[in-house]
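In this section we walk through a basic example: taking a raw amino acid sequence and producing a predicted 3D structure, encoded as discrete structure tokens. The instruction is simple. Fold the sequence below.
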Amino acid sequence: MEIVILTGMSGAGKSTALKMMEDMGYYCIDNLPIKLVAEFDEASESYVTEVDKIAFGIDVRNFNHIGDLLNAINALKERNMSVRVLFLDAEDDILIRRYKETRRSHPLAYNKRVEDGIEEERDKLEVIKASADYIIDTSHILTRDLRAELEKIFIEDQRFVNLFVTIVSFGFKYGIPTDADMVFDVRFLPNPYYVEGLRALSGNDKEVQDYVMSSPEAGIFLDKLEDMVRFLIPNYIKEGKTQLVIGVGCTGGRHRSVTLANALYDRLKEKSSYGLRVEHPDLRRDGAR
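The resulting token sequence is shown next.
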């Protein structure tokens, strides 16, 4: 029997992930008491014998003693069962914003501030996070990205590393993305904005891509950028980084930055074991250059 323990920070998306696991064929049980986890394989013989994949959602309110869950996991492994721990995390400010948007109370906040509940929860979950097989930071990923990551792990059985890379194009006239870890300026490349027939298009259109990449400097820049990013990613993973945001900027975030962001994405997605996506937020703005 294959068992997945799904836990993590409240507000990081455990309920959503558990529903996705159910869609993947897992028999899902939310908030099962920890003392019953180790005994579940015996009970399952009578009730769910046709199921060979189980996912347990474990809430922080179930953690009276963190050692109980670790002992339960070890007990299952001793019975030659496959047990993996998936931990969902998110940045504190993201969790606070989610609680404010939903107007829900943090399970450990009681009459305290949400920030206090989050801090207490991190302390409680520190040991289980350190022993998790997979850690997914949901701070800046969409629901479809989370599903893709779960499918990569539990369906495609790909090698997984705890890093999600977002490549984002932007326009300097609108400001640098506040969450960018690295920022690259491609305003040195020829600007399609001044070419008749290209101004209304974007870096998602082949005509603009061909124009931008026809510059020898564009190809050289892309080669060097890919080489540097590929060098950095394993080192970020080694240091425990779970989110990496790469900003590629031009004047208006419409032509050059979109082209280069797409091109970098296409190169990195080949044989990547980490999560990867590309975004173009400034394409929605009018008059971008």
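Looking at the output, two observations stand out. Strands lie at 2-8, 27-30, 53-57, 82-89, 134-137, 164-171, 182-185, 243-250, 275-279. The CA atoms of residues 202 and 255 lie 5 Å apart. In the next section we compare this with other chains.
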